[in-house]
Amino acid sequence: MRHMACIEDLRQTARRKVPRAFFDYVDGGAYAEQTLKANCADLERVKLRQRILVDVSERSTRSTILGEQVSLPLALAPIGLCGMQHGDGEILACRAAQEAGIPFTLSTMSICSIEDVAAAVDKPFWFQLYVMKDRGFVRALIERAIAAKCSALVLTVDLQILGQRHRDVRNGMTVPPEWRVKTILDIASKPAWALSIARGKRKTFGNLAGHIRGMENINSLSHWIAGQFDPALNWKDVEWIAGLWPGKLILKGILDVEDARIAAQTGAAALVVSNHGGRQLDGAPSSIAALPPIVEAVGSSIEVLFDGGIRSGQDLMRAIALGARACLSGRAYIYGLGAGGKAGVARAIEIIRNELDVSMALTGVTGIGDIDHRVIAVM
Ligand SMILES: Cc1cc2nc3c(=O)[nH]c(=O)nc-3n(C[C@H](O)[C@H](O)[C@H](O)COP(=O)(O)O)c2cc1C
């Protein structure tokens, strides 16, 4: 992995190693992918201010997120089907994150279950919750996350209905894969991937399989999931979940100032400014465009986290300078996982850390607390 110079190198390697349908599932976004593209393009437009002759010999990227010490203001975002990029992907990514000193978030739609990951790692991780119509199942999931000692619950609030991803439709992307000749030939040409998946603990949604009565068969499970996202989800449900969860609650998927103000009054510890990585409302603003007004509106009443388009340490610096406490990384680490398993995730984190560190030096700052509007160049 040492020859991977940047996240784009990991992406190109993942593209070669992971079957097309699964790579595209990660790489793509909703509809015309305008918001997906805007996430990265708008970040690139934020220019950093080069400063000189400041003593930057003693630098640190350490910070805190929700009071937790972190070596870098970054957490790994929840990624559904993470374990389809590499066998046992969730366990490998969680280990890489914990070794690097940053939080890992396990998705409701993961391949390895909450219990699989808890048994395989030493420290607590975050659990992301999708609210299903079956509220008994939601309650059971929360209880499982409590039993596994998860240190935060990330409630995703921007997926009451699924945005269409054209690439998934064209590729026949399903779990398990739709067996087209093209798919079989593609998988046959990726033997290392196939072997890692074959050796992995599970081949389907670990948090769901075996926990829903009558859904032992994979195809009926996929059918159940498709009908389970709840368009009726509303702020009252947030109250209900906050009542069930004794720990820190994070609301993920806020892009609007008015929603942010309401979120700040729920008692949640943090919100994540996010458009789900451009996978939901196409035509929505980029996350970075939404960040400053939200930070201004909520002040210090709630911790503001950020995701969408982070592909480098420079991007991380831009988001922090514009008011984020820390960022979540989605695709950047998933490309690493597809490219090289645990070592690939570790490399993705290392790349971002090194880029942040050098950017700090070149903008004349020595600590994360010093990164603010002063590191942004006025154009
Ligand atoms: C392949 C993929 C799967 C995702 N699955 C979930 C999920 O299960 N739950 C969730 O809250 N967000 C999910 N997201 C959104 C991410 O958590 C995060 O918001 C997004 O990836 C950030 O954008 P970035 O990929 O540009 O870093 C997913 C994103 C991707 C790319």
What report would you give on this structure?
- The protein has 379 residues and is α/β, with parallel strands linked by helices.
- Helices cover 44% and strands 11% of the residues.
- It is built from 15 helices and 10 strands.
- It has helices at residues 7-17, 20-27, 34-45, 89-100, 114-120, 135-147, 166-171, 181-188, 191-199, 218-226, 235-244, 257-264, 287-298, 313-321, 331-363, and strands at 63-65, 68-70, 74-76, 105-106, 126-129, 152-156, 248-254, 270-273, 303-307, 326-329.
- The strands form 2 sheets. An 8-stranded parallel β-sheet has the order 3-10-9-8-7-6-5-4.
- Helix 5 (114-120) links the parallel strand 4 and strand 5 (126-129).
- Helix 14 crosses helix 15.
- The protein is globular, with a radius of gyration of 20 Å.
- The two termini are 37 Å apart.
- The mean pLDDT is 95.
- The protein binds flavin mononucleotide.
- Residues 25-26, 39, 77-80, 107, 109, 128, 156, 252, 274, 276-277, 279, 307-310, 328-332 line the site of flavin mononucleotide (FMN).
The ligands bound in this entry are: flavin mononucleotide
Give the count of helical stretches. 15
Low-confidence stretches: none
Distance between the termini: 37 Å
Instruction: Give me the count of strands.
Output: 10
Q: What is the radius of gyration computed over CA atoms, rounded to a whole number of angstroms?
A: 20 Å
| Structural classification | alpha/beta
